[in-house]
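[Automated response] Your request has been received and processed.

Submitted sequence:
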Amino acid sequence: MDAACDKCGAPFKAGEIVCEFCGTAGEDGASAVMCPACHHANMHDASACTKCHYVAQCLFCTRTSMLVAPNCQQCGEAFAGMKERKAAHDEAVRKQQLLATGAAVLGAAVPILGALFGGDSSSSSSGSSSGSNGGGGVLSEFNQVIGGDGGSSGSTGGSSGSRGGGGFGSSDDK
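Generated structure:
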């Protein structure tokens, strides 16, 4: 726009609609768009404000659009409420990543816990093979010690048998 201001005669700055000296709108003033940040009048096809240099940039695809555009011209995302939608999207992505990390850790921990608390009989240190949970490991050995192996005849802590040493209320407690 090589025109001069009708009121003061000063030349318009390139890309400006309003005279920088007197504030009068030029002949394209009717088609001006207001900057959403500073409310300065800009040309209708401006992609950045000539005063504060505000740019309408999409937070999702990072492309810029004209100041007048209500949606991103690249991906179509609406500028209104974009910050809130982007924050919610980022939070959902963060939660999904945490769930994936948790699943990976759990996948690695299950075989270890299985070996400790009831894995196969080859991992048992006592060498016995039949238990109530069908395997060796710490839990199987614990069950054998407390007598939870289904009443096998060689248990060490049973209340019946001819070994003497009875429990509470037996005839040996005199």
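Summary generated for your ticket: Confidence is low (pLDDT under 50) at residues 121-134, 149-171. The CA atoms of residues 59 and 86 lie 7 Å apart.
If you did not submit this request, please reply to this message.
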